[in-house]
Input
Amino acid sequence: MERLNQKTKMTASIIACIALVVLLVLSYTNTGTTSMLRSVLQLGSIYALAAASMNLLNGFTGLFSLGHAGFMAIGAYTYAVLTIPVNKKANVYYLYGVADSLANVALPNWLGLIIGGIAAAIIAALIGAAVLRLKSDYFAIATLGLAEIVRICVASSPMARITNGSLGLKNIPGFTNIGFIPAYFVPFIVVAICLVIMFLLINCSYGRAFKAIREDEIAAEAMGINLARHKQMSFIISSFFAGIAGALLAMFLGAIQSTTFPLMLTYNILLIVVIGGMGSLSGSIISAFLVIAAKEWWLRFLDVEQYIGDWQVPLLRTGFRMVVFSVILMVVVLFWRQGIMGQKEFSWDGVYNFFRRLKTKFRGKNTKAAAEGGNANE
Amino acid sequence: MKKISLLLVLLLVFSVFAFGCGESGDDSAANADATGISVEGTTIHIGVFEPTTGENGGGGMQEVLGARYANQLYGTVEINGTTYDIVLDEVDNQSDKAAAVTAANQLISKGVVAVLGSYGSGVSIAAGETFMNAQVPAVGCSCTNPQVTLGNDFYFRACFLDPFQGTVMANYAITEGYTTAAVISQNGDDYSTGLATYFKNAFQELGGTVVADVTYQTNESDFNALLTSIKAENPDCIFCPSSIVTATLILPQMTANGIQAQVLAGDTWENAAIISNDAVGVAFSTFFDETDESNAVAAEFVNGFKEYLNSNPQNITWNANTDTVAAVSALGYDAYMAVYHALEALNGTDIETINSVAIRDALVNVSFDGVTGAISFDENGDAIKDTAYIKTVTEDSLATQSFQFVRTQSVADL
Amino acid sequence: MSNQNVLRVCDATMQFGGVVAVNNLNLEVNKGEIIGLIGPNGAGKTTAFNVITGVYAPTNGAVELNGERIVENHPQGKMRELYNGENLGKYNDVKVLTPDRITKLGVARTFQNIRLFKNLTVFDNVLIAKHMNMKGNIFSDVFRINRKEEDRMKAETLELLRILGLEEHKDDIATSLPYGKQRHLEIARALATKPSLLLLDEPAAGMNPQESDDLMKFVGRIRNDFDLSILMIEHHMQVIMGICDRIYVLDYGTLIAEGTPAEIQNNPKVIEAYLGVDE
Amino acid sequence: MTNFLQYILAGISIGSIYALIAIGYTMVYGILRLINFAHGDIFMMAAYFMIFAMVDFMIPWYISMFIMIIATIVLGVLIEKIAYKPLRTAPRMSIMISAIGVSYLLQNLATYLFSALPKQYPSIPILNTTVHFGEASTSLVTILTPIICVGCVFGLLALVKYTKVGMAMRAVSKDFETAQLMGIQINNIISLTFVIGCGLAAVGSILYFTPRPSVFPLAGSLPGLKCFVAAVFGGIGSIPGAVVGGFVVGMCETFMKAVGLSEFSDVFTFVLLIIVLMFRPTGLFGEKMAEKV
Output
């Protein structure tokens, strides 16, 4: 493993950032045919946040939770209920009417976003005390039950005047310009801020404590780490970001329903986490974009019957895309267990060494010995 | 230190580019405002935005068939001396809202100038904003929720609405002499819950009593306990707006539980999949009747469409293994025809390029005889309809695999 | 050497259902001592460790650290009928600190089957042990408000690794170390919690005579350098006899002998129960 | 009173099917420590096999039944060989994720092959005969279900307790590696577990779909989830626990519906589950497993 010096890394980082930004701007200014790209990027970033927050719990703290959709639902509904403009409430709650206490409430969307996250965190704090004592599989099923409870309660009739019951909410304010920053970039900025916080978290002392719990609970406890408190913390933080991701999803969709947050959503996010690598935030981010782009965009052609001349390409018809997608997932799970990144985070050293290895491979057998000699010197 | 500086650089760069693109961004937005999406070359792309997988995959596919058939018949249009080919771009919204938005964007990025669909209101509501922002008109087929078109100038629809349908069924129940009703609806489903509420309100207003109001979960398949509690109340009729899947589950269980009450339902039940011994006697409202002789357009459509279905075994599979014409197929056809007539209306205008905004403006004034009756749109973009077709399943239906038309019902009949 | 008492185990009994793993154990560790705990396999040595460190609550009995009760229990629930040990009624409080609190009070341990944080680096393994004494909360930590604290922890860790001769391995993944080094690392990690009492569970297991000799010297050194009292379980008799001030012998959960190495070596009970069988 | 009887019948009938399927979950868990998320979907595929045999190939029901059970078992064992076996040494989480992946694949495959529209489950004449109990009426299958369920459970318990194979199964569930060292063919035992679990799912699918004759690609997901809850409730890994769990879940949801709280019947089930887990973290009959330190 060869290391690059600090200056090279810095330059590389700056260049990468600028490249990223330029790409984003290009995707923005080019209207018309790139709108698909734009929505995939936005949705991808939201899923990246959701996956990263799940990874914090599943990959970093070793708590196998299946309740993510529930916390996203809490965030999304809290955001939606608090921010729907007052003059549109009558239109939204057209059947049941709106609860009196909410009739004149319309918070600015940034505040709603934060409250959405906090609401999810509060529920997590309440529930966590009870379910975090459970061992792995039991914890998974308890959180799964939790998500189902949230989903059903949100759509139930006693909640109708708040959540509009089964009818769902619409006219949810979307992304708006922040000063000179156009609305299109808002999700990226919010997600970037959240991800930076998460990166800071996993690299600080508390983050290390989480990893210690994942590696060996008993040893972690023997090192003076309070298991209950740290698990609770991880659960709350993960739920907070899940709530934010849910609220962003509500902003992106503009309309939500309890069925927007089924168990399948949790599974989808889990699969993103697995493909990216359990225990790698950068892996989750990369795989979120890849999976969303593949599922929503690149593989779409599989759903449409195609003809080459008169010959109909076999198998291609409605539903085939999802079959191919799930087969790809299985292949990843079975043969590429580490996912894209394993437990490593993105680093320039990693990229550099990856390309070096590639180069060595391509050079073929003749130079292999020489390359090995070079390695030995390191 | 490294991380902090990285973060700073990131923020700095973000703000710098945000400055830079402020103006250019506005420019492009302004462009979009004027014309939406324009047709390039001589091919007009029309998007088909339907669920072909997921909960509503079955019904969605039948609508796609209707649209495909219409496209087969009316595949070209002549506007100001140029002949344009009309091509359908189909996309699956998976009966899922999150997928619906990207699916809608997929269509926009393919450059469609109009969209047909969807089956199920939830996905239509979710995608409505995308179509509106892209200035592309959409014509809903069987999305009956009022929210679809409300406040969206680019969404039209070819069918009637839930408040109308719920009221119609309440009227029907009262005219048939029923005074007590039980209502079964699906938790989390806007169609089922909305329709049930409209029915309840109207039924009570007309002097009936709702004696039981129960709900079930998505994908639930055991209804014995629910039906037992309904049976205890002994209602005259049971209103059960639900998906086809639920219908096929709940009907046999009603028989098994010995429930004699009249079963009423909404438009979704018009699907050959529900026809069975247990379904005999149910009544539901729908948009269209294939045996309606009074409508020549419909008669022609029915013959042609049956032929189309039988031309390919896969079509029959998609149509629940029969060649009965589903109402949603007729709506798919009508939605296509609405766009087609709007395109025709552009002929003779001094338009240089065909664009989505012009099509939208033309749609506002479209008026034609469709398969499901005369179609023109009101200020919300909803087709003006005043009657629903009540259909039932009889012993004959079992052999013919088709529904029997009972009568038309309108709100004013009482 | 002062005779100040560090650890006292009082009448501790640990019963799993009907099986008595530790029976009425009394044990003392004084400041600066190295105490050996020996006995045949399954004698209940590790269980005794688990009682002291709070992993198990004893069925009956108490544990005192520096004169303060950290663990006390009496038979409860179903155990009330199953319990067949002595000293019923002597301990009436129920106080069981969790392992992390006991570690904070200055008791550190290693494990029989090495329990390192396998996929983390050597440096991180030790750094994690510093977490419990960190000043500040999660917000100041995440947003790097108390960088000094973080720098202090890292400096201390580095210093510790240097003292223990693991500095060159600091960026290696824990499991990539050779077996002996992993044992060293586990001890280093325990030392990073700044304990006053160190419990070592078979530190020389699987080592050859040369390695165990080194380990013995190492244990003696850290006792002096870190001002520790040490309680160790060990099977290597050279190690035990060469280093321990006093030795306790367990057999079938019961204490059968205690005394200086010389006394133990000549104790007929021990020879019968343990040495006679083993060697 | 009639109503009460009717509710009891409904509760017992659904409860015993939950119990049958929950056994599949619990056995696989007992042996592999794996929550087989795909079990509900295997149950759904069994129903499609039956439709194929009886409707598409016109085979009489008594033969179809065997064909279907065998096909389901083959499917289950194939899934085990392809998706679970390679992961035997992997962390628990990976194999659980693989199970979720299989479930996802089966649902999508069913949608692709059979379309999302419901298919009519063929009627088995004998099972559909109506039986009267005073004023309460029910079909024969409702009565048969608990009987078959109890029969299967006793058979299974006898197998586990008194046969050599059963002893091997118990050994494997206690300690994988030691069992292997004792000369037990682990792979055969695991396959056998899947054979039994899937066989019961197949039987369960006949009993489930005969009175609820509609099959669609997601038909297995909700019953699957509930049976899974039932298994955990009873203490996953314990066969009598799964049976008790199945009946409790079935009864609870029936009576929640009976008292007019249909909306919250599933909520109640999950709340009950969480409460039970809080007081008995390994379910009602689950073994406490202390981790060795």
